[in-house]
Specification:
The structure is a homodimer of 252-residue chains. The first copy, chain A, contains 10 helices and 7 strands. Chain A is α/β, with parallel strands linked by helices and 252 residues long. The first copy, chain A, has 2 domains: 166 residues, Alpha/beta knot (3-Layer(aba) Sandwich); 67 residues, Helicase, Ruva Protein, domain 3 (Orthogonal Bundle), CATH 1.10.8. Chain A has a 7-stranded parallel β-sheet with strand order 3-2-1-6-4-7-5. Chains A and B meet through helix 1, helix 7, helix 9 and helix 10 of A and helix 1, strand 5, helix 5, helix 7 and helix 9 of B.
Chain lengths: 252, 252
């Protein structure tokens, strides 16, 4: 449950980042923001960056230590810039695996995702308190994500984990209107009209008609014309027939 | 190849977002930033937000139109805030599916991911030029991602896709042929040829040409014609022109 997932910012230096965090959280459906010893808060810069997420910002809870902020959590994951090659023997999780772990556990109990101070990140002492370290895979030559960006990516992965994410293309066919697509017989009349027109304008002659029509059918099947579009195409065919001196034949 | 994936920002209002885009790109291993009519650039705010990604920022290319920026691209994906429930019948892809599609195609040819102006997003005219629309799943009550956040998420998904592909064996036959899809400029010549032909056969006359062409662009973008298919369509147009007494004009 996203409502059981707590985002904790420790010792944040720029209040703008607190506002950006609130906005990033709300866009992904999270709401529980906790601030440990923020250096400037409340602050107009935070309000400005929060934009439409002022509710998340104003409901943020302030704590004087990480211990207090995570006291009631069963799982705590700290974000770390340390590369997976680091000598640290603590369990590192990719961003998506971290999100999965937090989401599973959040069904039963509050869980926390912790972000350190902008330049320093989490201290070793703070990392000791985390069950896992979340690591966002980044360009080894410049892995320096802005803290707001890191928060946005992890909140995005949390949302992905929370909705059963479909990796398939969302095709318009998924929700077709009752009358928006032509019946197969209308489609067939269109193909007859198309073949007739291609013959009238002498395109189908030197080539094997079957092959041309097969390729055109494949093309139009991919496009899946709507009824309105099919009518427009029929109109174009009739115009081409008229222009070629043949009486426009709509095959109806 | 991440190096073949172009990030295009159109008409950006806040130069800080251009800098943030450069930083987001570099952290995820992208480098090809293109700016279409930025409102303030270069600008110290852009430099400040770019942080360690000044190289990406200073190498950014400026264009006066989207057409120029995507002329040599075989796949163009536009980002859209439109929900999946929108009545738009254009193919929407989730962020990760968009990244996969761009990465696969980038092996053969430059591809582009396009972001619109901060408040307005991409115009309908700009969206017409895109094969797919990338949609970041977000909180329906507040889906308002900052443009820098949207760029960070999509660059993150592009990196994830590139790591995934480098791990999995890519079958050569699974890859489209280098010449299987037309470049955007070839597609634009086709649309010019189509509009000219529709005028020659007197189809475009009683109707508003812009609307007809807009509907045809949408139809053909959904079909995404291959180069062979586009050549066949060009041949049909020339035949229709000849039949209507106009000398076939291939616009080349």
């Amino acid at each position: 449950m996203l409502s059981n997932i707590r985002i904790i910012l420790i010792n944040t230096f720029h209040p703008g980042n607190i506002g950006s965090a609130a906005r990033a959280m709300k866009t992904m459906g999270l709401s529980d923001l906790c601030l440990v010893t923020p250096q400037r808060y409340p602050d107009p810069d935070a309000d400005a960056m929060a934009a439409g997420a002022m509710d998340v910002l104003t409901n943020a809870r302030i704590f004087s230590s990480l211990d207090e902020a995570i006291a009631d959590c069963s799982l705590v994951i700290g974000t770390s810039a340390r590369s997976r090659n680091s000598t640290s023997n603590r369990p590192m999780l990719e961003a998506d695996a971290s999100a999965e772990a937090l989401l599973k556990e959040s069904v039963n109990c509050p869980v926390a995702l912790v972000f350190g101070q902008e330049t320093m990140g989490l201290t070793n002492e703070e990392l000791e308190k985390c069950h896992f370290h979340a690591c966002i895979d980044a360009n080894p030559d410049y892995p320096v994500l802005n803290v707001a960006s890191a928060i946005q990516i992890l909140c995005y992965e949390l949302r992905k984990a929370s909705v059963h994410f479909s990796r398939t293309t969302i095709q318009p066919q998924a929700q077709p209107q009752a009358d928006s697509y032509p019946l197969q017989e209308e489609l067939e009349r269109f193909y007859q009209h198309l073949e007739q027109t291609l013959t009238d304008i002498d395109f189908i002659i030197q080539q094997h008609p079957g092959k041309v029509m097969k390729r055109l059918r494949r093309l139009f099947n991919r496009a899946r014309p709507e009824s309105k579009e099919l009518n427009m195409l029929r109109g174009i065919l009739s115009s081409a027939q008229k222009a070629s001196g043949v009486k426009g034949n709509t095959n109806d």
